[in-house]
Design brief:
The N and C termini lie far apart (109 Å). The chain is of the alpha+beta class. It contains seven helices and 14 strands. The strands form four sheets. Strands 2, 3, 4, 5, 6 and 7 form a six-stranded mixed β-sheet that branches. The protein has a four-stranded antiparallel β-sheet with strand order 1-14-9-10, with helices on one face. A two-stranded antiparallel ribbon has the order 8-11.
C-alpha cells in the first residue's frame, strides 16, 4: 500500500513540473517580439551613404629654367672648375682625376663633349663652352679623390652640376611667378580631382618666350600619366592671360628664352 502511495506521489510531482515549464514557455513566447512572415526583426544599423571621392590636393607646380641658371657673360669668363663647383668642394679635392664638359639635350647627355684632367679648362673645353647659346644646357662633371672626414683615408668622389645658360635679363611674366602658379592651380582643379596619387607621375613641359614676348614651341617632355592633365596644362600655357616681357642680353638686345613647367607628382 505504502509503495503505491509513493509511486502516485512521484507521478504527480512530475506532472506538476511539466505544467510549470509549459506555463513559463508560453509566458516567454507571449512577451517576446515576434517576426511575421513578411517582416523581419528590425536591427538599428547606421545608414551608409555613397563614399565621397577624395580630391588629390598635393599637386606640384613650378616654372623656371631647366637647370641651375648661369649668365652667358659669366660663362664666358670661366677658366677653371672653380667657376662651377662650390668652394667647399674645391677645398676638399686632394687629386683631380678627370673633368668632362658635356652638352645636354632633352635632359640627356649627348656625344658632344670635351674631356680634361686638370682644374684649368682645356682649349677644347673653353671653345665648346663659348659655342653655347642662350637656353643651352650642359654638365661640368669632375671626378676627384678627397680625404674621408672621419678616417682620413682617400676616397673617390665626384660633382656634376647641371647648368642652363640664361640671358642677363631673363623673360618675366607680367603678373609675376606666384600669379602664374596660382593660375595653373585654379584652372586645373577639375582635372586634378580625377587623379589617383599612386599613378600620378612627375611631368614636364617646355616652352619658349620669343623676342616679341610670344609663347611658342610648347612641348610635353614627360607625361603625368593622365592625358587629360597633360592636355589641360598645354592649353593653359597656350591661353595664358597677361603677357611676357622678353629676355635681353648684355647689350640690351631682345633674345628668346626657354622655360620649363614641372607639374604633377613631386620630384620632377
Amino acid at each position: 500500500m505504502k509503495r503505491r502511495i509513493l509511486i502516485f506521489c512521484t507521478v504527480l510531482a512530475a506532472l506538476g513540473l511539466t505544467a510549470f515549464k509549459v506555463v513559463n514557455w508560453n509566458d516567454y513566447e507571449t512577451s517576446r517580439p515576434k517576426a511575421t512572415t513578411n517582416e523581419a526583426v528590425s536591427v538599428n544599423m547606421p545608414v551608409l551613404g555613397p563614399k565621397e571621392k577624395e580630391i588629390f590636393i598635393d599637386f606640384n607646380y613650378d616654372v623656371g629654367t631647366r637647370f641651375n641658371p648661369i649668365e652667358k657673360t659669366e660663362l664666358d669668363k670661366a677658366r677653371t672648375i672653380a667657376d662651377f663647383l662650390d668652394a667647399e668642394v674645391i677645398a676638399s679635392i686632394v687629386s683631380l682625376q678627370s673633368v668632362h664638359v658635356v652638352l645636354v639635350e632633352n635632359d640627356k647627355q649627348t656625344d658632344i663633349f670635351e674631356n680634361g684632367t686638370t682644374a684649368a679648362l682645356t682649349d677644347g673645353q673653353l671653345q665648346l663652352l663659348k659655342s653655347f647659346d642662350y637656353s643651352t644646357n650642359f654638365i661640368v662633371r669632375a671626378h676627384f679623390r678627397k680625404k674621408n672626414g672621419n678616417t682620413g683615408i682617400l676616397v673617390s668622389d665626384f660633382r656634376s652640376p647641371h647648368l642652363t645658360i640664361v640671358p642677363e635679363k631673363q623673360a618675366v611674366y607680367s603678373h609675376g611667378k606666384e600669379a602664374l602658379l596660382s593660375y595653373f592651380r585654379e584652372e586645373s582643379k577639375e582635372v586634378g580631382a580625377n587623379v589617383d596619387s599612386e599613378n600620378l607621375k612627375a611631368a614636364k613641359l617646355s616652352f619658349r618666350v620669343t623676342e616679341q614676348g610670344a609663347v611658342e614651341v610648347i612641348e610635353l617632355e614627360y607625361s603625368s600619366g593622365y592625358q587629360e592633365v597633360d592636355k589641360k596644362m598645354m592649353e593653359l600655357i597656350s591661353n595664358l592671360p597677361g603677357y611676357w616681357k622678353p629676355a635681353e642680353n648684355a647689350a640690351g638686345q631682345k633674345v628668346t628664352q626657354e622655360f620649363v613647367i614641372s607639374f604633377g607628382a613631386r620630384g620632377c
